Amino acid sequence: MQDDLRTILCFGDSNTHGTLPMGGRLGPGARWPGVMAGVLGDGWRVVEEGLPGRTTVHPDPIEGVHKNGLAALPILLESHLPLDVVVVMLGTNDLKARFAVGPEDIAAGAGRVALAVRRSEAGPSGGAPAVLLVAPPPILEVGELRGMFRGGAAKSEGLAACFAAEAARLGVAFFDAGRVIRSSGIDGIHFDAGEHAKLGRAVAGAVRGLQGR
User: Fold this and answer.
1) Domain-located, residue 1
2) What total number of domains does the chain contain?
3) Residue 201 and residue 33: Cα distance in Å, rounded?
4) How many CB atoms lie within 10 A of CB 177?
5) What are 113-149's pLDDT values in tens digits?
6) Range of 167's domain?
7) What is the pTM of this model?
């Protein structure tokens, strides 16, 4: 391994996993972490940790307790250390009607994940990795998932502002994915290949800004 190789952990849900609207999965190079890796090029290693259904802090009473992102995070940080950057993009699944939480609480959950990274010793020389907190784009209530996410579309419109405020409070970097991509009009939740490409390029730019190269 190169001494100056920098490692990025992408911690997210099905949209980091590469789930396509209503089924299937994009190939590694077409998913946004893979696109980001291609843009960053040599000197970077991108670790993709996307789990469909993952929430910020909620064990899912239907899909399983393992969907709790905060609970899973310490294992992943230790598995992949040393980490220079952790990109956190969670919150979409918190919009499910079963959780009954608003954008402020979803942002607070994402903030707990970011704070756990900041308090870890998973960075170089036992320090903390840098954090990029990404607000997911607004969702649509369409297709077969609309019942599961009933009421979520309106809540999702407030995520970016709440995530930005939480990132500022914690002193971590922020990126609004809704500025560059849109959720699918087919299922309202996932991204098509073109949106993954846009997001990967945009997050690569944000990471370069964090790391100064």
Assistant:
1) no
2) 1
3) 9
4) 25
5) 999 999 999 999 999 999 999 999 999 999 999 999 9
6) 6-211
7) 0.96
